[in-house]
Amino acid sequence: MRRRRGPGNPEGVPRSIGRGPGNPEGVPRSIGRGPGNPEGVPRRIRGLAWITALGLVAALAAGLVVASDPRRPATAQEAPAVTVQKAHAGSATPTLKRRIVLLTIGSDAGAPKFGRGGTMESGRADALQLVVLDPVKRRGVVVSFPRDSYVPIPGHGANKINAAMALGGPRLLVATFEQLTGLTIDYYALTSFDGLTDIVNKVGKITVNVDMNLRDQFAGAFLDKGRQNLSGSQALAYARARKTLPGGDFDRSRHQGQLLLGGLATFQRQVAEDPARVMTWLGVLRDEVKTDVPFPELLRLALLATKVPPGNVRNVPVPSVAGSAGGASVVRLLPGAYTLFGRLRAGNLG
Amino acid sequence: MAAPSLPGRRLLGAPAALLLVALLAAGCTSGGREEPPGQATGTTAAPAPARPLEVQLVATAKVPEGGPSARRAAQQATPGLERFLGRYLTFAFVDAAGGEARWDSLLGLFDQPVRASARKQLDALSLGAAAANVSAVRPHRASARAVVLYGSRRPAAATVKLAFDATADTAQGSGQVHLRSVLQLLATGDGWRIAAFDSRTGPPK
Predict the structure, then answer these.
(1) Which residues in chain B touch residue A69, judged by CB atoms under 8 angstroms apart?
(2) Is A85 within 8 Å of B125 when comparing Cβ atoms?
(3) Is residue B51 part of a domain?
(4) What is the ipTM score, two decimals?
């Protein structure tokens, strides 16, 4: 529509109805009686009526064609013509048939941030947890061993269990555990002070049920009893605190098991919120842990771990008692320890 | 003031109006029947064959210290993941139509420890039992977001959030099919495999 203002049309009135010669009133030209229009119906109005009718017919016809066209796909804006598929939901994690036995090791070496030189493998194993998992029943046990447990080390006589790794690396430590428990150890996972703190910091703290008020200046552990979100340094302090604890090394090894279970619960919570967090955790483990678990198996275990209720995993300190050997303080396993190993061999994780 | 309502009368003169009607009618029968992405235009009554299914993937990568840049790693992983997801959706929906569902091809994309579970849950992963009634599936949208975990030099695993919408044709008419999945993928020597899944099909929630 052109309503151009200008000379002869100062109001911008459309030219077709402007006043002008022969139309001083500005009446539209088509209105007026005349031959063939005895009723005085404006010709343009009659024309528009026809056009409107034609348009309606055409649109109606087109609409019918569209509605009946079987090729026309449904679009997101339209209700589906038929329900092709009812709602279904499903999920699955790897089904592993056999029991998994994993030895987790915390080394006192290979941690430059804490002034611990050497390699992790050449250090003493100061944190030792035997994790036995039944993938079918989705149950597990974390058996915590005091580092001073006095046991036979293959080829080296009796010694504190933490010396096994310093004497022969993770493989000798694994052999020591296999001889002690009668269990076949499938894999080991080894980290350090640096590794533990980095793991916890990179995944964004872990939630742990701290079981006592801790004021241990030697380990730097200052924690209140209760559910706590621990940073990397707090987690390490909780894992190391010993001297001021009533149970000493026994309490410490129990706390280390609690950290593992806290990590499992934190992992599960994060993955439930964002499934891609599995990749975050695996990336952190890739960077901070040395293990002989092949990656495909590690992924399957991680996915399986998302479905194991933390309440189905018990934290069991190995039955033991303080003693001495050759003038040194050691921890001696009690008969109950061997009973426990027997039950684990039989697959009884309850 | 009558003037504003009048100017159209001249512009909508009979020729222009007829042209408009013709365009309107034409629009209703062709232009208004815009095909969705991935939909071939057909001129016969039979459903048109679908174009090859394309998955639009947005990927990020988690790389080891000292490894490739995360951006470069994500770019490298994207084509392979898109192909894998395209194969998955093709087996699960496009090829499954016509009563000739080849579930073995689909199940071959799953890691062995999860394959039996997948076989029992095909309805949540694919057309499933509905495949017998579907003559054709015409994809509208296939999009995914992935977080790829790198090993030293190559992808090792990935988490993929996959969304797929399509029209399915049945003897009773056409309807929508949808898939929303989270797939945990493992990189193997034979390509990606699904190691775990959380999936749903049917009408969106």
Answers:
(1) 33
(2) no
(3) no
(4) 0.76
The total number of structural domains in chain A stands at 1
pLDDT in tens, chain A (350 residues): 334 444 444 343 333 333 344 343 333 333 334 444 444 445 554 555 555 555 555 544 444 333 333 334 444 445 447 899 999 999 999 999 899 999 999 999 988 888 888 899 999 999 999 999 999 999 999 999 999 999 999 999 999 999 999 999 999 999 999 999 999 999 999 999 999 999 999 999 999 999 999 998 888 899 999 999 999 999 999 999 988 888 888 899 999 999 999 999 999 999 999 999 999 999 999 999 999 999 999 999 999 999 999 889 999 999 999 999 999 999 999 999 999 999 999 999 97
Angle at alpha carbon of residue A265, lines to A261 and A267, rounded to 5°: 110
Give the nearest chain B residue to A286 (CA atoms). B64
pTM over 0.80: no
> Range of B191's domain?
56-201
Choose among B9, B42, B134: nearest Cβ to A44: B9
Q: What is chain A's percent helix, strand, coil content, to nearest 5?
A: 40, 25, 35
Element holding A335 (H helix, E strand): helix A335-345
Residues 6+ positions from A65 with CB-CB distance below 8 Å: B28, B29
Q: Is residue B165 part of a domain?
A: yes
Kindly state whether A60 is in contact with chain B, defined as any CB-CB distance less than 8 angstroms: no
Residue of chain B whose alpha carbon sits nearest to that of A77 = B176
Query: Which domain CATH number covers A313?
Result: 3.40.630.190
